[in-house]
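Complex record, two chains
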Amino acid sequence: MIRVVLPAHLRTLARLNGELQLEIQGTPTIGAVLDALESAYPVLRGCIRDHGTLRRRPFVRFFACQQDLSHEPADTRLPASVAAGEEPFLIIGAMAGG
Amino acid sequence: MPTTRKKTHRTTPAPKPARTRSKSKGSRVRVLVGTRKGAFILSADAARKKWDIKGPLFAGWEMYHLKGSPVNPDRIYASQTSGWFGQKIQRSDDGGVTWEPVGDKFAYEGSTTTHQWYDGTQHPWEFKRVWHLEPSLTEADTVFAGAEDAALFRSNDGGKTWQELSGLRSAKGHLWQPGAGGMGLHTILLDPSDSNRLFVAISAAGVFRTDDAGKTWRAANKGLKSPYELPDPDAEVGHCVHRIALHPSRPGVLFMQKHWDVMRSENGGDSWTEVSGDLPTDFGFPIDVHAHEPETIYVVPIKSDSEHFPPDGKLRVYRSKSGGNEWEPLGKGLPQRDCYVNVLRDAMAVDSLEPCGIYFGTTGGQVYASANDGNSWAPIVRDLPAVLSVEVQTLK
């Protein structure tokens, strides 16, 4: 199980409290987590990645194990401790706005 | 660029007002308020003195606009948007008690076209957000959405899916250019006498009209003058129209608050004449029409485009009972000193009670109501986030 932490606005949108857990089939990559997340919570489609292009939205960031994974390709493997469910995959609204 | 403009005026005889008044007894009103950080629903009975305030709904999100269906008032559509997390459309079928997200895929039809950019080059259309939602007058599941970058979308399934009416961009879209606030389609007027006729207004492109239900469009800006922005006095597009309004009993008569100038058209936008008259300044954003008097209109004069606050620190609505030119200030109950808020284009609405109620919200978070045609005002609520939009539903 992959643990995922969403920013407050997306938790509200998806009607979630706290972190969530996702079952990933196959290799645990950034893209696989996002696919599973959007499949489980369709309301989040378009909020993290653009519809169509699936590009990360500019003010959304991905972190795990103190690493910024925001610029990594979608097929990047998650760190082992995230894949093992020991550490969460963090989706964060960037600190922006001045 | 002028800082304020005061004008001499000509007199227009006031036509006899049409009377189509509804019974107010037993009625109530529901005011839908969109703000920078959530939505609020304000409810009252026909006296409009004691208010119930519900919210914030969608806390933290920018709620650009909420509007109820005239066919089913408990069906409310809302535009929920965020610079971080994109666009959502929410729908309620119980008057705003519960909400469900519906469709949010706003894809431009056909190949990507371009519009004018600030540096004179061409720039591809990019969807940013929905500024305005306009439910159909006859079908609860049909709703129009005005988008930035400027385009008109229609849904026939209650907001689940959206299709662009792309003929609009063929109306010289390559010459449209964003204003400082973005290139948004902010006004959608549906002609109650002709379902094939719609008007839209775009900042900063102007007014456009279709007579075939959105297949083809033409610019409707003849008579608008924008000498500081457009050197060509006959420019068909590029005018910074802030808002247009009509009265349902006379849909061929349009009123406009332009960047500078208040205008009217007698012929469905074929041509416009200025009716700014004796306003202290003809800059402003909203304009609206009294529910029962088609020649009574309301604006909120703002000092200038560089100083977005009321003249002299006095918040005053101006009313013309002659369809323009002759205006009277309405400030009773509104702050008359040290007031430096703005009233945005979608932040004024009228109910259909007797007397007519007028509502507006400010960037300072106040929502004011008048239950007597604008003669006096009182705040419903004072400390909301900056108000983006105000709509009112008159419920039987």
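Note: The CA atoms of residues 24 and 33 of chain A lie 7 Å apart.
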